[in-house]
Amino acid sequence: MISKMKIMISVTLIFGLVLYPMSLSQNVAYPAWEFKNAYLEYNATLNLIGIKENLTIKYIIINVYQNNGSFTYYENFTSVKYKISENLTNTGNYSDPNGFPAVSTNDLNYLNDGQVPEDMKNFVRSVTKNIQIKVPAGTYITDKIVNNDGSTEYIDQSTGIVVYENITLLGFNTILKLNDTNIQMINMNIVFIIITVIILVLIFIVLTIYARKKK
Predict the structure, then answer these.
(1) Could you state, in order of their start, the residue ranges of all structural domains in the chain?
(2) Which of 3, 22, 117, 134 is deepest in the core (most CB within 10 A)?
(3) How far apart are CA 202 and CA 195, in angstroms?
């Protein structure tokens, strides 16, 4: 017979395994997104005076230099409608991504506390933490940034990756939504499924114990 103590231990271990990754981004030397071949793909919708254009924007880190924390990344803008593809190469580092759609670990710590990071105070109006947002790549818990110009950004709390943006890009009002990535993030859709399975398993265990006691 399964004892109550064994049930409690099992539950503790399972929830520990589910929640443990949430703390990883705060304890690593480099951000979770800084590794070779890390990529982020966004769906971008541009609007200007009735003109609407859809783009795919992809960022790929092609080199990481561990000696100084810098990295080189490749940026690609593609329009299927107009058959246009533009490629750019840039360099950033773990404390200043320099156009790569993510924030440093230090800035993420501030955002997760609901505070404006020191290096953002000149252009960020406010930060609101624990905002759930759904994009094509999944559902994530984010920190919402409102900039002085009214634009908004949603930063994934576990990695510092930009999940959603409503900004001005190339003169166009632009909405970017994360579509795909190989960077490990905490997708709340998956977490919900795991928790649901755990609850169903616990119900089954409790009902089994109750049935055995009745015999």
Answers:
(1) 31-185
(2) 117
(3) 11
What residue spans of 76-142 are helical by DSSP H?
Answer: 105-112
Does the domain spanning 31-185 belong to CATH 2.50.20? yes
Reported as a single tens digit per residue, the pLDDT across 150-172 is 999 999 999 999 999 998 876 77
Provide the whole-model pTM.
Answer: 0.74
Under 8 Å between Cβ of 162 and 151 = no
- 1-5: long-range pairs with CB below 8 Å, 24+: 1/209, 1/212, 2/205, 2/208, 2/209
Note whether 184 and 57 are within 8 A (CB).
no
Distance CA 143, CA 165 (A): 12
Pairwise CA distance, residues 2 & 18, whole Å? 23
pLDDT at 10: 46
Q: How far is CA 208 from CA 32, 96, 136, 204, in A?
A: 42, 55, 40, 6
- At 117, list the tokens: 């990071």
Q: Do residues 125 and 147 lie in contact, with contact meaning Cβ atoms separated by under 8 Å?
A: yes
CB burial of 152-166 (b: ≥16 within 10 Å; e: otherwise) equals: bbbbbbbbbbbbbbb
